[in-house]
TrEMBL record, chain A:
Keywords: Oxidoreductase. Its EC number is 1.17.1.4. Gene3D superfamilies: Aldehyde oxidase/xanthine dehydrogenase, a/b hammerhead (3.90.1170.50), Aldehyde oxidase/xanthine dehydrogenase, molybdopterin binding domain (3.30.365.10). This is Xanthine dehydrogenase molybdenum-binding subunit. The keyword Oxidoreductase applies. One of its GO terms (molecular function) is xanthine dehydrogenase activity. The keyword Cytoplasm does not apply. It comes from Paracoccus haematequi. Residues 38-138 form the Aldehyde oxidase/xanthine dehydrogenase a/b hammerhead domain. It is an enzyme of class 1 (oxidoreductase). InterPro entries: Ald_Oxase/Xan_DH_a/b, Ald_Oxase/Xan_DH_a/b_sf, Ald_Oxase/xanthine_DH-like, AldOxase/xan_DH_MoCoBD1, AldOxase/xan_DH_MoCoBD2, AldOxase/xan_DH_Mopterin-bd_sf.
Automatic annotation (TrEMBL), chain B:
Its EC number is 1.17.1.5. GO terms for molecular function: 2 iron, 2 sulfur cluster binding; metal ion binding; nicotinate dehydrogenase activity; oxidoreductase activity, acting on the aldehyde or oxo group of donors. It comes from Paracoccus haematequi. The keyword Oxidoreductase applies. PROSITE patterns: 2FE2S_FER_1, 2FE2S_FER_2. It is an enzyme of class 1 (oxidoreductase). This is Nicotinate dehydrogenase small FeS subunit. Residues 1-77 form the 2Fe-2S ferredoxin-type domain. InterPro entries: 2Fe-2S-bd (IPR002888), 2Fe-2S-bd_dom_sf (IPR036884), 2Fe-2S_ferredoxin-like_sf (IPR036010), 2Fe-2S_ferredoxin-type (IPR001041), 2Fe2S_fd_BS (IPR006058), Aldehyde_Oxdr_Iron-Sulfur (IPR052914), Beta-grasp_dom_sf (IPR012675). The lineage of its organism: Bacteria, Pseudomonadati, Pseudomonadota, Alphaproteobacteria, Rhodobacterales. Keywords: 2Fe-2S, Iron, Iron-sulfur, Metal-binding, Oxidoreductase. The gene is ndhS.
Length: 723, 174
């Protein structure tokens, strides 16, 4: 039996609050945790089928043009140059494979061949020494060097922003730049492909198996039913594993050709070239307000880039239309077509850099207007979505601001440059956090056995997000079982297709599908118990209705299996859905070296129902640390001559390390959002990053008076601003 | 070439390419995939193992260099039903998310606590002589060779401090 729900209306009955088991929301340890801390969880490259060969990708050394000839590779089993090899990774949720054909180069570093050998060492050696002849072409690689496209659907204007800027008591009009950024998940992309007749099984690092399966089938030119994908454990994704990438397709092609299993693992450097980068952005923000800080105008004018023909463009302004009120508004979204590696989703596409910059602009406006930054934001929270007048599904920004200010000790903040400890300037900064919320179609199967064990199966992935654990807790709660009686099976396309992990929609979408399956099972038990499902209490393997109490083993004949199927519905149109929060940072800036140390950092977040307090907190810690990276250290430098990524390893691209991250503090605001399905939970994987960097940058200004608008705020830029 | 590795208390004879790193010997030849490859260049710490008790990046070590040593990998520190104290604290504090950097963090922390016990100072130490407070700053400094993109850092440091018996979690607000 399948229970289906389209989320067309609100759900106010708080069913999960009336369940009896009491495990949902609890800070339980991760179900798969013991495997991970002992090295027993196996990731993409960690199966060892018999007779496996090793493949190493060969990369283009020209920014664009044709591959004329690929030389021999002594010591190799094969050099694969197949027309089905893809140019770059598929975008998230794409149903088709990306462009293919390895003879055509679109950017420097593109995979153009695969060398396969008996050992990894031999394959690497051969790949590094292969001779290639090209017919190179000259192409633009700098966003400002071309006339950008202005996609009509991405521009919008209301009122007259220019006039509002002229009339305003206080204005800000500044330009910020953020560099290309990389997800840099710790597990490099890898795949092991193996054929059995016409069927291929590919084990890979992937976030969204159901769409990845379509992409893979399309890339290989076979039917979807002939493709099985496995991703039981994924060593981080952050967007980089949303779509299939070159290594997986090449592995499948090679395995077919050689008639044996083939593993292809990208090197770290290849990940920087081949995983989607977050586009660099140029953002002009214009703000106009009256003497009381009430906004009259908001302008957000952005330039991003991508390869010609690539549909994705970093949705920088995604949250700008609804975060603050103003009568006069304008959004400009320009896309330069250049030949840097493909741009795509990196954790919180849009808001990660858009909210960060916008919240820096708000800090500048607060300063110019002589109003406390928290107060400025409080004065501009709209009652409904500006322009459309749609109601918010829930709105917690004001509460997050007030709660955060109190907890962080915001009232102790001094004017810029006035707190000095030895050679350090000390400052505090804050920012609002906001991220759009969405649901995506998702299915799950739940089986309840007579002996009081349940099994959850869905092709959902756990990329560190806690999915195994929260889905287990959810089923345990609904079915009245101790959490350790539930087994969760993920990451296999043989299971019902799920939303996948992306866009912060994974937990809520797959969670709702598990909820629905369990609701169906509950209904069947209720029928046996001759009561309404809503009158049924399940607890520790016992079913209760009125004064009748019976063990599940008496009520179930063998097992009950049900499928849950969730689809987003009208509420995504009728209501503006978002998650909200606030970020707080205290930094020290060295007056001689310009070094910035984050001393304290705190986030207050509202994301609907929290499914596991412990794993939810970890999601936020991760997002906030990404924010530190965006503010202070992370930049992919592109060579201005050919666009190639110069900082293409972890010694050159600086993700935050232990010493960069202080003891972070996270608080959740209790919330139930009625418009996002019966789970009443929203996304959390990305909210922590949205605006976090702004709190750090604003704290730098409060410490030492320097505004860095060319991110990241490295010491050289800070020293240049210090007198 | 023929080599012999002494690993987690057992002895393994292997036939490997001379260019094989210890990391690849573990992962490709011995099927011990608990030791992770994050960069293959000594930049991330995911491949950390203990060689004669000291933490080492196995990606920067050729397998043939490790022949005479005692090697301990994450698999040798504990198993799912017999966690080491550090593994248990990582689990309880959620000192990981995706789990990919985790074996390296745990091996590194194991070696790091030995270094503190042996009286080795760090950049964050108040003095060169010790004793060293197991402060957040001290642990974070010493663990900075182990990157975690999920950024479980706050929880990792808490886990290590608890396993090492540090008492006041908040002693070092600076
Ligand atoms: S894999 Fe050895 S340090 Fe990164
Ligand atoms: S837990 Fe994912 S990289 Fe550390």
């Amino acid at each position: 039996m399948t229970r289906h729900l389209r989320v067309d209306g609100p759900n106010h009955d708080d069913r999960l609050d009336h369940m009896a088991q009491g495990v949902l929301g609890q800070p339980l340890n991760r179900l798969e945790g013991p495997l991970k801390v002992t090295g027993r969880a196996t990731y993409a490259a960690e199966a060892r089928p018999r007779n496996m060969a090793y493949g190493v990708l060969v990369q283009a050394e020209i920014p664009a043009g044709k591959v004329l000839e690929i030389g021999d590779a002594p010591g190799a089993l094969a050099v694969i140059q197949d027309k089905r090899m893809i140019h770059y990774a598929a975008q998230g949720q794409a149903e088709k494979a990306p462009p293919s054909g390895p003879e055509r180069v679109e950017y420097m570093g593109q995979a153009i061949a695969l060398v396969v050998a008996e050992t990894f060492e031999a394959a690497r050696h051969a790949a590094q020494n292969i001779a290639i002849r090209y017919a190179p072409e000259t192409v633009p690689v700098i966003p400002e060097s071309v006339t950008p496209e202005l996609p009509p659907k991405k521009q919008s204007a209301t009122g007259d922003l220019d006039q509002a800027m002229r009339d305003a008591a206080v204005t800000v009009d500044q330009v910020w730049h953020t560099p290309s950024q990389m997800s840099a998940a710790m597990e490099p992309h890898a795949a092991i492909a193996e054929w059995d007749g016409g069927h291929v099984t590919v084990r890979a690092g992937l976030q969204m198996l159901s769409s990845n399966r379509k992409q893979m089938a399309d890339a290989l030119g076979i039917r979807e039913s002939k493709v099985r994908l496995l991703a039981p454990y994924v060593g981080g994704g952050f967007g980089s594993k949303l779509g299939i990438n070159a290594e997986a397709v090449a592995a499948a092609i090679a395995a077919r050709e050689l008639n044996r299993p083939v593993m292809v693992a990208m090197t770290r450097q290849q990940v920087f070239d081949l995983a989607h980068r977050r586009s660099e952005t140029r953002q002009r923000v214009r703000l106009a307000c009256d003497a009381n800080g009430v906004l009259s105008g908001i302008g957000h004018d952005v330039l991003v880039s991508n390869l010609p023909g690539s549909e994705f463009s970093e949705p920088v302004t995604q949250a700008t239309p609804f975060t603050y009120q103003a009568a006069h508004r304008q959004i400009v979204h320009a896309v330069s077509r250049i030949h840097r590696g493909c741009a795509g989703s990196v954790r919180a596409p849009g808001e990660a850099v858009g909210v960060t910059v916008f919240e820096c602009a708000m800090d500048e406006l607060a300063e110019a207007a002589g109003i406390d930054p928290v107060e400025l934001r409080l004065r501009n929270i709209p009652d409904a979505e500006p322009v459309t007048d749609r109601p918010f599904s829930s709105h917690k920004l004001a509460e997050a601001l007030r709660d955060g200010a109190e907890r962080f000790g915001w009232s102790a903040r001094k004017p810029s440059g006035q707190r000095i400890e030895g050679e350090w300037f000390i400052g505090m900064g804050m920012a609002a956090a906001v991220r759009v919320n969405m649901l995506v179609e998702s299915r799950a199967r739940v089986t309840l056995h007579q002996d009081g064990r349940a099994i959850v199966e869905t092709d959902m992935t756990d990329i560190g997000t806690g999915t195994y654990t929260i889905l287990g807790q959810l089923a345990a709660e609904m079915l009245g079982l101790p959490a350790d009686r539930v087994e969760v099976r993920l990451g296999d396309t043989d299971f019902p297709p799920a939303a996948g992990s992306g866009g912060s929609f994974g937990a809520a979408s797959s969670g709702n599908s598990v909820y629905l399956a369990c609701e169906e099972i509950r209904s069947q038990i209720a029928r046996t118990m001759r009561c309404d499902e809503t009158d049924l209490t399940l607890h520790d393997g016992m079913a209760r209705a009125g004064n009748v109490s019976r063990p599940l083993s008496e009520l179930i004949d063998g097992q009950i299996t049900a499928e849950g199927h969730l689809q987003p519905g009208k509420t995504e149109k009728t209501h503006r859905q978002a998650t909200w929060g606030s970020h707080w940072a205290e930094v020290a800036v060295n007056r001689w070296t310009g070094e910035v140390r984050v001393r304290r950092m705190m986030g207050v977040f509202a994301c609907g129902r929290v499914l596991n307090e412990k794993t939810a907190r970890s999601q936020c810690l991760g997002g906030m640390s990404f924010g530190i990276g965006i503010a202070l250290t992370e930049a992919m430098e592109h060579d201005p001559r050919d666009g190639h990524v110069v900082s293409r390893d972890l010694a050159e691209y600086h993700i935050p390390c232990h010493a960069d991250v202080p003891e972070l503090e996270v608080h959740f605001l209790p919330e139930r959002d009625a418009y996002v399905g019966p789970l009443q939970a929203k996304g959390l994987g990305e909210l922590g990053i949205c605006g976090a960097g702004a709190a750090v940058l604003n704290a730098i200004h409060n410490a030492c008076g320097v505004r860095v608008r060319q991110l990241p705020a490295t010491p050289d830029k800070i020293i240049a601003g210090l007198d | 070439m023929q080599i012999t590795l002494h690993l987690n208390g057992a002895t393994h004879d292997l036939d490997v390419d001379a260019r094989t790193t210890l990391l690849d010997a573990l992962r490709h030849h011995l099927g011990l995939t608990g030791t992770k490859k994050g960069c293959d260049h000594g930049q991330c710490g995911a491949c950390t193992v203990l060689i004669d008790g000291r933490r080492v990046n196995s990606c920067l070590t050729l397998a043939c260099m490790a022949e005479d040593a005692q090697i301990t990998t994450i698999e040798g520190l504990g198993s799912p039903d017999r966690l080491s104290p550090l593994q248990q604290q990582f689990l309880d504090h959620d000192g990981f998310q995706c789990g990919y950097c985790t074996p390296g963090q745990i091996c590194s922390a194991t070696g790091m606590l030995e270094e503190i016990a042996a009286g080795w100072p760090s950049h964050a130490s108040a003095s060169l002589e010790g004793p060293f407070a197991l402060s957040h700053a001290e642990i974070a400094e010493r663990m900075s060779g182990n990157l975690c993109r999920c950024a479980a850092y706050t929880h990792i440091v808490a886990a290590i401090r608890q396993a090492a018996g540090a008492d006041d979690r908040h002693e070092d607000a600076a």
